[in-house]
Fold this protein.
Amino acid sequence: MDLLETKRILAVQSSVCHGYVGNRSATFPLQLLGWDVDVIPTVELSNHAGYPIVKGRTLDAAHIMDLYEGVSLANPNGYDCLLTGYSRGKECVETIFQIAKLVKAKNPNAIWVLDPVLGDNGKLYVEEAILPLYRSMLPYADLITPNGFEAEVLTEMPVNSLASAYDCVQVLHEMYHIKHVVISSFLAIEGNVWKLYCFASSIGSKPFYVKIPFIEGFFCGTGDLLTALLAAHIASNEFKEDSDSFKRAIEVSLSSVHEVVQRTASRVESLNVKEYHPAYSELSIVKSQHSILSPSFPLFGVYFDRSQNAV
Amino acid sequence: MPVSEVAKRVLSIQSSVSHGYVGNRSATFPLQLHEWEVDVVPTVHFSNHLGYGSTRGRACKPSEVLELLEALLEKNHFVYDAILTGFIPNQRILQVVSKLLIEYQSRHPHVKWIADPVMGDQGETYVEEDVLNTYKDVLSHAFLITPNAFEVKLLTDVSVVNKATALYGLKRIYELYKVPQVVITSFEDADNSDLLFSMGYSLKENTFYSFLYSYPSLSGIFTGTGDLFSGLTLAKYVDEESRQKDKTSKNEREKNSSLGFFTEVIGQVLTCMRFVLIRTKEYTLQQLKHDSSIEKNRFLLSNACELRLVQSRDDLISKKNIYTPEEWNGLERNF
């Protein structure tokens, strides 16, 4: 590694003492990939909300901005990448927007990766009043990683097939001028069969989808892990020799996440537990270092031509 | 890399910073590289370490630390193989931590408490005075402690200024606190001013295995090194212990038993530290060459001196040991 080379990322999202969601899902993988990760927690909890007991606190907007001012002073070179995820309450989301503008003012080349954590499986985690605020942030982001539900909520369009995902992504490009859009996962029914897809598009490139093999089980933190890996691979521009570097970055990131989830599922199976408990399903990130550094299970993207898919 | 079968779950209770590498941030990445599941409870959350001259954020309230520890240790019943403690700014938080930790140990006697009794360095105290009194009350529950020379003095009243006084300090620690593993992480010897020393012991089956290492001192500003030391010691200790158990050759076991594997563990830790510090110093010098104004600004300089942990991945997991323990009559005769 070049002596002076330092890749710096600021990650602003939830933090837990135990387990892997939010910044905990993101930090170790990013560090493995050679990134110096500065972290600002938006909430500091004992563990994620799926456990019987959750304790801890939400940081208020003033506290979050205070920490940002501190790291900004301590890190005069600014950041190459800003990663934002879950935060609670309108004031905090506004503060994150302010931080994004400050990061970009300090380094105009900084890439803002915005994971609009709004909900999943048809259910909103945040108040509806925040949605207009999120929409106003979109034009400033360089890459957004909504899941299917979040893409629907932001655009008020359905996302339940490849064609509808394509249409939704076009709206995000055209209305909000977001350079890279990745709908991280959504379900589509084709004939009688359910399929799980990721749909990705970059302005000026051909859109594509990746079919994701189903793995049985419920695992938290996979979206946060995917967003972190996407941020790492896209912001470092490591696939610039490839004919489609964006597509390669998505394929590699999805492969890594898939391998981590597979390892987690195998571990759960070997424990032979009758009932689901979140403690057993925490992502096996620490035991999957090879999967993060160089995944061996390939997931390939397929270019999508809207004119051939009228449905 | 084969998936390790050894249980490696640690709860780390130290300072947290948003930027840079001290406390939890110094310990977590190296432990995770060794495939440890690391749970983290902050005792303070600052934007950066205090060496910068100023920082944002604040110390955690004792009630906040209590709430998180209760959730992890009691209510959600998480299982740990080790608990690692470091910088704790005041007595109230230390009392909360030690009380819950000791209660947890009584329910899970196998849990190893690795305590870095952070109180100061080179004559300067970082914590409130009454922290020392609480450490004196609770250290006997620790499995391994990593005090520096200044902290040995606070705990035993022995001024460590050379090998003989370091040895005496270690003996007093055992007499007062009965801790089975102790490393004085670094001390100076008036007769050897360009060397630093590390001395310690491990008590196994009623036998003391003691060691002494020396290494050239490296000039420069380094922060978070003690936290890195204790995190690495835990990681290398458990790995080396399980390697020893795997060895089937009786000869090999006998060969290592005279030194004890703890000596080898500390040699590996000192080796890792050396490579990390050299890399860090090279980076700092390059930065200064690139922009000489950095040196005059405490903030910029502190930033340029942050440990290059992320860039030292291969060194951190290496089992290399470039040091040979020193033969010193003082050790053989007295321990």
